[in-house]
Structures are given as C-alpha cells and as structure tokens.
C-alpha cells in the first residue's frame, strides 16, 4: 500500500493513458506506479583471463611434498630434498617436478 506524499491519504492504482499510476483519493496527486521499482541488476561475471592461470612459482613447499633422499642439491650438494609435482598451464603440457633442498632451501625444477 502506498500513501500520498502530500496528504498521506491512500493512493489507489489507476490506469491513465495506458500507464499504471497511483492516484491519491483525496488530493489527486499521481505517481508513476512503476517508479522506484527494482530494476534488474546487471551482474557481470568476472572471467579470469587465460594468462592468469599461468603459474607463479611459489617457493613454499606444499603440504603434499615428500622428502626424498638421493636427490643432489645443485647448490650445496645435500642429498635430501622436498619433492612435489606441479601440473603447469594445461594438461597436455608436461608436469614439472620441483625440489627444494632441505638444507639450503634452494628450489629447482625438472621437466618430465
Ligand atoms: Zn494526496
Ligand atoms: Zn642445498
């Protein structure tokens, strides 16, 4: 229910010249019945560009990384490293093996 902004009387819906209006029963004030209605909010879905998927190599060791022996660190010749595999870019590209030296923290990679 709408009330007249001028005299606070009840507004009644009418059709005038094909337009729906609300007309005050007392003072005759008219308002457009459709005014102030909720308009459809256009939502734009954010599409991530393909380039954003390109992996930024993070030198943090992921939780799934395994400690492996027998891998020689190119920096300090330590023979133990954390090892994990990352599938970079698309599935048809080879996965990359990452190693992180448990001693000096150097990260290096190998392509399959
Ligand atoms: Zn009125
Ligand atoms: Zn090392």
UniProtKB/TrEMBL annotation:
UniProt keyword list: DNA-directed RNA polymerase, Metal-binding, Transcription, Transcription regulation, Zinc, Zinc-finger
Protein family: Belongs to the archaeal rpoM/eukaryotic RPA12/RPB9/RPC11 RNA polymerase family.
Domain TFIIS-type: 69-109
Keyword check for Zinc-finger: yes
Annotated Zn(2+) 2 binding sites: 73, 76, 101, 104
Single Gene Ontology BP annotation: regulation of DNA-templated transcription
Gene Ontology cellular component terms for the protein in this record: DNA-directed RNA polymerase complex
ZnF endpoints (C4-type): 4-27
Record-level Gene Ontology MF annotations: DNA-directed RNA polymerase activity; nucleic acid binding; zinc ion binding
Listed name of the protein: DNA-directed RNA polymerase subunit M
Binding site residues for Zn(2+) 1: 4, 7, 24, 27
Coiled coil: none
InterPro entries tied to this protein: DNA-dir_RNA_pol-M_15_CS (IPR019761), Rpa12/Rpb9/Rpc10/TFS (IPR012164), TFS (IPR006288), Zn_ribbon_RPB9 (IPR001529), Znf_TFIIS (IPR001222)
Domain of life: Archaea
């Amino acid at each position: 229910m709408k009330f007249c902004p001028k005299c606070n009387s009840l507004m009644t819906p009418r059709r005038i010249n094909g337009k729906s209006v609300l007309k005050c029963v007392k003072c005759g004030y008219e308002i457009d019945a459709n005014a102030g209605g909720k308009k459809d909010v256009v939502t734009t879905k954010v599409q991530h560009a393909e380039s954003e998927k390109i992996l930024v190599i993070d030198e943090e060791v992921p939780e799934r990384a395994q400690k492996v022996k027998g891998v020689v660190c190119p920096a300090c010749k330590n023979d133990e490293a954390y090892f994990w595999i990352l599938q970079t870019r698309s599935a048809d590209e080879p996965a990359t093996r990452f190693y992180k030296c448990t001693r000096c923290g150097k990260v290096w990679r190998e392509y399959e």
